[in-house]
Design goal:
Layout: H1 2-8, H2 12-37, H3 42-60, H4 65-86, H5 91-114, H6 119-125, H7 133-152, H8 154-162, H9 164-169, H10 174-196, H11 201-212, H12 219-244, H13 248-271
Amino acid sequence: MINEILAIFTHSFMLRALIIGTLISLSSSLIGSTLVLKRNSTIGDGLSHVAFGAFAVATVLNLSPLEFSLPIVIIVSIFLLKLNESSKIHGDSAIALIATSALALGTFVISIKSGVNTDINSYLFGSILSIGNKELIATIILTVFVIILFICSYNKIFALTFDERYAKSIGIKTGFYNTIIAIICSIVVVLGMRLVGSLLISSLIVFPTLSAMQVSNKFKSVVIYSVIISTLAFIFGLVLSYFLNTPTGSTVVLVNLGLFLVLKTASLIKKD
């Protein structure tokens, strides 16, 4: 059985998917720990829809989807951040407005260009065949940056996550760190969308942290458990999808869901 699993990764596309997926899972779980605990995780779902719209427009215009989409999603993430801080439009409402508009735009431009066909599925649900070396390099750079950020700024991120007003009062540049987190979330969404799809990428941000919270209520432990759960769930989901011939994105999400339900059940039993 082990030899059969190892044989899977003799295929270059599977090995590339394993590396990118593991690194994306690590980055998304780290950034998700902050977003979920701040109750701001819906931004990931909103940005995934924006990324879908940008990818669709780039495809129609014969542009590079990664280079075209990344700055757009980053700009939108900062815009949403500013809206949430100063506008009369509530953050959730702004996210819903932009997300649905971007999804509609993406579907619309693809329909006009060539009709809605199976190509749209790779954007909505991901395709491990669509990722290349460009995504691999970008993902490695992203992951290294996220790890360094959390190691060097752990105390500041901790304060920002649980009490932003207090963090600001002690001199932490909350606006700067919120912007960095929004940008990282944007990059995670754009890179991860090619792997699991725009409709599923936000689950990689939310599920691992929710699962980790069933095991511990300490921030550091939640972060560590979240990383472990996220990476293991992706690897298991990737291998399972290969043997079952099922979409990788949906299989990974279902594995995450299964882990959450098991851990939630165990925590309820433990309380009783």
